[in-house]
Amino acid sequence: MDFVEQLKSAVDIVTVVGEYVRLRKSSSSRYMGLCPFHSEKTPSFSVNVSHQRYYCFGCHATGDVLQFVQEIEHISFYDALKSLAERYGVPIPRRSQYSDEESRRRGVLFQMHELAQENFRANLVSAAGEGARAYLARRGVTAETIEQFGLGYSDRSGRAIARLFDERGFARELIAESGLVSKRTDGSFYDKFRNRLMFPIHSEKGKTIAFGGRALTPEDEPKYLNSPETPIYKKREVLYNLHRAKDAIRKEDRSILVEGYMDAISVTAAGLAAVVASCGTSLTPQQVQALKRHSQNIVVNFDPDAAGGGGTERSLDLLLAEGMFIRIVELDGGLDPDEYSRQRGAEAYRARLDAAKGYFYWLADRARAQHDVRTPEGAVAVLKALLPALQRVSDRLERMAIAENVAGYIGVERGVVLETFRKAVADRQQKTIEPPHPTLRADEKGLLRVLLSGEHGSEELIGGLETVHVLERVATRRIYQAIRALHAGGAEVTFDAVNARLEPGDQVLLAAALLSEEAEYHQRDAAYGRHCFESLRRSDEQLRREELKARVKQAERAGNLEEALRLAEELRQIERNKTVGA
Which of 195, 355, 416, 456 is deepest in the core (most CB within 10 A)? Predict the structure, then answer.
């Protein structure tokens, strides 16, 4: 067996997809969840156990377990192969066709980051790390938490990492690409991070891919220095601590979004594991999508200062655009999540999370603080401030409920609020995903299911496909052509074998025909296949009769009576055969 097929047979696609998408069982062989490849509120992403394939009825994304890992992690085929093989203990053959230069390059960069982390952690427990340890002690970070988060220290020398990479013999171009060193004008390297507390940043799978470094003295600027983007680190796609938090996010069915590394660390240490931070950048759509794969519910807890409030408001548009259900936490005493969880404890912080406001109430409070709602002008100003967020709400009942609540909350008549909101929604221009997706006939889908089921008698049906000319006109014609070609060549006709011969558009049609919910409840035996076959053949005859009728009329209009009579006789013969057959 080919290694790729061996690996796919050893891996359960539901288990793999389930690490990224919250799935629920909808039938004996099917799981459903929110699609990780486009924004949606209602689950349309299907994982089929029988065929070990996924298919989205919204955006029509489809593929096997290797394609899923490639797409979800934005990695090459080989990296996906290697990742799954390592995870499931399947040895990779030492053959060149299962490797590529880009994958080897990424592998070296991962290795360099692991070496750097070992160096930083060793530094923290050495004499040189005394200042960093003192800082962590002042922040209440215990030895267990330091170990859990892999915290470290970059020494003052500015040469430790550059020297380490040079001693290990890494290629100079890869050293320069690592993001861990900088290059002088004379071509020599020096460490990017010096005299800083180091926070390793991980991929969702838990690999070290970058670092954040906090200055330990006031003269060192900037206060936080982060790794630049590299072939293994795209900051817009990464959330700090997600690899640890994702299981808790699924279990609690909510994530907690904070601003900084220390916020995430302290909240986790206080016993709330479902917390992530945005790695020192503004929130991005890719980061929101990464969270949404695990839960649609999110509690935003940014710092209480003006910058934190502004960041929360900016994040709302992104979160709403991705269909997230949002609550906002406000902590008393002007404390940030790090300070609050350390000073007040886990229970107090959890109570604030549970009492978090819906995002509309939070927005209304901010608007009311700036306008006097006792005046008509002030009430209108508050409503206008809420409109951008409301325009993201597509569900009419949800809009009405919001209008009802907001009216009472800001002391404005319900009718005024509804009318203002109605006009805003009427002006909204929604973007929808509507890829072309031809309607498939029931018999063409049914016959496909039987032919690819491997049931006894399906080979006989394949042999007769060339006599059914209507199959040259249906949307799935290229799928049937691939089936005939495999059969003619003596190859086994399977889903994967047919799929491999198709262009992406036809792969979507094949997935739609075989992986849809209705497909699970249809017969797949030879008798049902013959029923579909005969239905298509009758359709073929009907098309032939309609064509002959049209040609008879055309010949009559052209005055070609001899041709019209010949065609009419052919039509009568077909009608006679139909009567005899009936």
Answer: 195
pTM above 0.85, yes or no: no
Bridge partner residues of 201 (DSSP): 210
How is 447-469 classified by DSSP, letter by letter? Answer: HHHHHTTT-TTHHHHHHTGGG-G
Domains of the chain: 3-98 (3.90.580.10), 101-233 (3.90.980.10), 237-355 (3.40.1360.10), 362-426 (1.20.50), 442-581 (1.10.860)
CB 355 within 8 A of CB 321: no
What's the pLDDT score for residue 490?
Answer: 85
412's CB contacts (< 8 A; 6+ apart) are: 373, 379, 382, 383, 406
Beta bridge partners of 213: 198, 225
Q: Which helix (H) or strand (E) holds 214?
A: strand 208-215
Are 493 and 451 spatial neighbours (Cβ–Cβ below 8 Å)? yes
> Among all chains, which residue has been given the structure tokens 């350390």?
342
Mean per-residue pLDDT over the chain, rounded: 85
In this predicted structure, what is the pLDDT of residue 34? 92
Residues with Cβ within 8 Å of residue 404, at least 6 apart in sequence: 414
Section 65-82 average pLDDT: 88
From the number of C-beta atoms within 10 Å of its C-beta (0-12, 13-18, 19+), residue 559 rates as exposed
CA distance 427 to 24: 36
- Note whether 102 and 74 are within 8 A (CB): no
Distance CA 48, CA 30 (A): 5
Three-state DSSP state, 530: helix
- Spatial distance between the Cα atoms of 413 and 407, rounded to a whole number of angstroms: 6
Q: Is the dihedral of CA 260, 265, 271, 276 positive or negative?
A: positive
Across 13-27, 103-117, 506-520, least confident range: 506-520
Q: How far apart are CA 296 and CA 284, in angstroms?
A: 16
Least Cα distance to 448 among 378, 519, 376 occurs for: 519
At 344 the pLDDT is: 92
Check residue 426 and give its pLDDT.
Answer: 63
Neighbouring C-beta atoms of residue 92, cutoff 10 Å? 15
Structure tokens at 45: 């992403």
Q: What angle do CA 555, 557, 559 make, to 5 degrees?
A: 70
Mean pLDDT to the nearest integer, 171-181 = 96
Q: What is the pLDDT of residues 283-328, one digit of tens each?
A: 998 899 899 989 999 999 988 765 556 777 888 888 988 888 999 9
Beta strand pairing status for 297-300 and 325-328? parallel
- Least-confidence region, from 155-169, 385-399, 550-564: 385-399
**In the chain, helix, strand, coil percent, each to 5?**
55, 10, 35
Count Cα atoms within 13 angstroms, Cβ side, for 510: 29
- According to DSSP, the β-strands at 297-300 and 275-277 are unpaired
Question: What pLDDT was estimated at residue 380?
Answer: 78
Q: Cα–Cα distances in Å, from 186 out to 163, 164, 189, 190?
A: 16, 19, 9, 11
**Mean per-residue pLDDT, 230-238:** 92
59 DSSP β-pair partners: none
